[in-house]
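Me: I hope this is not a bother. Any chance you could explain this protein sequence and its structure tokens? It all follows right here:
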Amino acid sequence: MFDLSYPWLLLALPLPWLLRKLPQPAGRALKLPALAKLGQQQREAAAAPLSSRLVLLLCWCLLVFSASQPRWLGEPVALPQQGRELMLALDLSGSMDIPDMELNGQRFTRLEAMKNVLRDFILARQGDRVGLILFADAAYQQAPLTFDLATVQQFLDDAVMGLVGQRTAIGEAIGLSVKRLNSYDTTNKVLILLSDGANNAGDIQPQEALKLAIAAGIRIYTVGLGAEQMVQNSIFGQRVINPSQDLDEPLLIQIAEQTGGRYFRARSPAELRQIYQLLDELEPIEREQLTYRPQRSLLHYPLALALLCSFWLAARRIDWTGVISGAR
């Protein structure tokens, strides 16, 4: 759609004609040199050939039209808007190296499965501010809450076993998440905590951190990661074990229920992917839709045409002084 940024500037189109009509007292000099010069040019133009006067008038109209900044507005485009303040707290303890996650006949460690599933989840968080906390012996903020999802993903890809220890500090991870989320004045604060063990490290106990999360109004979704059966080879042959026997499900359930969240059990990469897809439905975003219209400036077209007109007038080599002298 065609539009003018400053349509009121079109009111200047009749300005040369108005200046010609201004009375000029005899024997007195006009005190406005710029207006006097413009009025003189109009009188010169009046004595010039008709074609030159028309081109000069066209040149003026084009300059005024350019000053009004013509532009072309495209179709409205929806803007991504800020939604959740979403913090990811991910377990990086030694047990995350257990290869009990099976998909399409292939086995992955818990850490590999978590990274693969979270990659799509993070990149789909357009409009959300996402942060990343890694915890083992202690909890560390790897990425602050940010709209730069590619950087968050890069920090997750760079996480390796042993980076922050071997044990599991669930309480400290929740406490640090509460501290970071409290820095933002929003009501939709969400923590997704993934762990495959029980709290056995850190300076803050989970119950203390849970009270802080409840007071801050932070909703926590917990995910218990790890298969329930795994075939293990030994010198006595194969035996089936439960690699998730250390998972503290009662604690994760309590944390989720008391903060208004939900507990999920992920025994495979497929289940883990379904959990993260379900989180979008559990945390809807209600907000007004904002749009913008892409615009493209068109002022260079009338400017270029005005320049060509000026070249044509210069090529005519009109002697305005002679025309005026002859008219007088």
In short: The first strand starts at residue 2 and ends at 4. The radius of gyration is 36 Å.
